[in-house]
User: Which sequence fits this backbone?
């Protein structure tokens, strides 16, 4: 049975100190990931200090592509069905997100996806979601 994605109203994200570059880039359609200046490892969610070596971090643009690691399809959610997922970016970090712009009943673990940015309420910054490639 087909269940096409329909956007649910999304609250505007709370922009904490230090996350401004992430949401400014989202407004430009870019997905950013934090990298350590010392050990060069990427990490998500964004932190001021590297979780691996406690080094300083910097923002770098991600490719915006990845693979579905895990998901949960909510066919009877209100007001519209949705699919939450963990997506492992090509950079190696995994982020929680939603799958969009497809028949949600066809989502599969291991499926290749690319980022899309969906608007939020109250003119807040858009949030990254992913769609199958």
Assistant:
């Amino acid at each position: 049975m087909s269940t096409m994605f329909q956007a649910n109203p999304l609250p505007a994200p709370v922009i904490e100190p230090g996350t401004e570059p992430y949401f400014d880039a989202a407004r430009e359609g870019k997905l950013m990931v934090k990298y350590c200046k010392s050990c060069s490892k990427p990490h998500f969610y964004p932190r001021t200090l590297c979780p691996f070596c406690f080094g300083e971090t910097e923002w770098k643009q991600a490719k915006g592509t990845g693979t579905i690691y895990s998901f949960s399809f909510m066919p009877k959610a209100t007001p519209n069905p949705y699919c939450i997922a963990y997506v492992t970016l090509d950079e190696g970090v995994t982020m929680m997100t939603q799958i969009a712009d497809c028949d949600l009943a066809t989502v599969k673990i291991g499926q290749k996806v690319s980022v899309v940015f969906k608007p939020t309420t109250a003119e807040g910054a858009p949030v990254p979601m992913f769609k199958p490639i």
User: Anything to note?
Assistant: The CA atoms of residues 118 and 126 lie 5 Å apart. The helical segments are 20-27.
